[in-house]
Amino acid sequence: MKGFHRWSELRAWKPDLNEINKLAHTITQKYATTKSAEDAKSKDDDWLAHDIYFIHDALLFCEFEQAVATADAGHVICVLKYWCFAFRGASQHNYAQECAEVLLKWKYETHGALRRALEQSWFVNRWGVEGRWIATDLYLEQLNYWVKVSAGI
């Protein structure tokens, strides 16, 4: 990708898919990995390091949100593996314990039909539209809200 110096120069830029992929890879490697944050810290650039950590965590949260929206239990499990340690490091012990319990039960206590049943029970798509799944516990909270509203509580 060529270097741009003004916003107006972007109007004429017509990248192909290969160029977009290379740019995305470069940005990810430079601004969204723990290695790039550690490199910034080693150069005493704490601002950049913290920005990179934030971007990394925000992207992981986006991955989690996408996994829920598409009812992809496997990706949810992948994110929980990271969050288990992240919560522990942030002294959020209850969240860390919950993540660990889900991961341990998933790996050692559930197999076959039970695992498939659990995967299907984690998400609800009340709209019937692809990509509009939500967590079942969130759906239950929404239902509780409407019960209270309709009852005048």
Give the arrangement of secondary structure elements:
Blueprint: H1 17-31, H2 34-42, H3 46-69, H4 73-89, H5 93-109, H6 112-121, E1 123-124, E2 134-135, H7 136-151
Antiparallel strand pairs: 1-2
Helix pairs in contact: 2-3, 3-4, 4-5
Would you write up a description of this structure?
- With 153 residues, this protein is an all-alpha fold.
- It has a domain of 32 residues.
- Helices cover 71% and strands 3% of the residues.
- The protein has seven helices and two strands; from the N terminus they run H-H-H-H-H-H-E-E-H.
- The mean pLDDT is 94.
Short account of what is shown:
With 153 residues, the chain is mainly α.
Helical element count?
7
Distance between the termini: 59 Å
Mean pLDDT: 94
Strand numbers in spatial order across the main sheet: 1-2
Tell me, briefly, the overall form: extended
Highlighted features:
7 helices; mainly alpha; 153 residues
